[in-house]
Amino acid sequence: MENFSWSIFITQAIVILILLILIVYLMRQKRIIRLEKRFEDFALLSIHDKEKSFFDGVAEFLWKVVHKVAKTLQKSVFLKKYAVRYEKHIKYEDKDSITGMDYIAIKVLVGLSFIVFNILTFMFQVMEMSLISFLISFLIGFFIPDIFIHLEYQKKRKRVEEDLLKAIIIMNNSFKSGRNIMQAVQIVKEELDGPISDEFKKIYLDMTYGLSIDVVFDRFYNRVKLEDAKYITSSLTLLNKTGGNIVKVFGTIEHSFFDKKKLKQEMQSLTAASIFVFRTLCFLPLFFIVAIYILNPSYFAPMFETGLGRMVLALIVLLYVLYILVIKKVLEVKI
To answer: Which terminus has fewer CB within 10 Å in the chain: N or C?
Structure first.
């Protein structure tokens, strides 16, 4: 029975790992294709460059499936509202080809793939097939893409936070040379690159639609959820309602951001050793568990086979999670 349970675990782990690798690979292929489209106008293409590779064909086929599923899911009012939360992840270059419903379609397809995996394990008699197992498999697959979306979103937020000071400096210099705010935003989106350029392209697009400055930058804050963006939004809202010198306002914002960034870098230098110790202490228990299991596989058996052992295991996991949360909260320094 013990070997049977381990075969279930190993089989599921291998298939899930393969699916995760496939998802990561497809996301990287999407990024490569997007970069190729950006540089193809500046490249000398031969006749054979127009031929599609096998992976390009697979990626194109998968996107067609995603778009068809998204078109079907578009009929649901609930899913349309749910898809709105994913629109902030769409890049400016993809705004005409990708919608928030495409993200929902990807989540649904991944969930269905996990159900297929559940059926395959039943066919090989690795596990029992039931409605509950199908539901759990679908929910796991449905929410797994959110992990990658969240990681990509955090990476984007970090890049935007790092480059926001550059954008403010460019805008402030533009105001000093007599340009208006729309021209300043245009200069930022052309001079900078990366996520900050993508966000200012969206800001420029919103302004061309006739939205007010405070609404445009409020939408910018809702996309990136940064305190610095909120500070800019509040300053522009007050400036728009009460009037004032925009050069002085952005000069104050520039100095404030510069001092904050300098202080943040100093705090990171001071807390680097503590963070390293914290990460080491978080990793050590897992390392010892793996090492003990390799040396003596039956050492932890009582913790899984007895009721008292399961209670102790649950308590250990709870204390471990609380330890991580508490120490992380203590080391967190807000500026």
So the answer is: N
Distance between CA 63 and CA 57 in Å, rounded?
10
Contact 51, 65 (CB under 8 A): no
Q: Which residues lie below 8 Å from residue 200, measured CB to CB, with a gap of 6+?
A: 167, 185, 188, 189, 192
Dihedral sign for Cα atoms in the order 277, 333, 85, 97? negative
Rounded to whole angstroms, the Cα distance separating 231 from 219 reads 13
The model's pTM is 0.70
Tell whether 184 and 85 lie within a shared domain: no
Domain count for the chain, please give it: 3
**150 found inside a domain:** no
**55, 170: one domain:** no
Q: Are 124 and 233 in contact (CB under 8 A)?
A: no
The reply to whether 80 and 189 lie within a common domain is no
Asked whether residue 195 falls in the same domain as residue 244, the answer is: yes
Give average pLDDT by consecutive 10-residue segment, the chain, 335 residues: 54 70 73 70 56 68 87 89 89 85 91 81 62 82 89 90 90 88 90 90 91 87 88 82 80 86 80 80 84 80 82 88 84 67
Max CA pair span of the chain: 78
By the 8 A CB rule, do 229 and 221 touch? Answer: yes
The span from the CA of 103 to the CA of 111, in Å, is 12
Count the alpha carbons within 13 Å of 297 in the hemisphere toward its beta carbon. Answer: 3
Q: Are residues 7 and 106 in the same domain?
A: yes
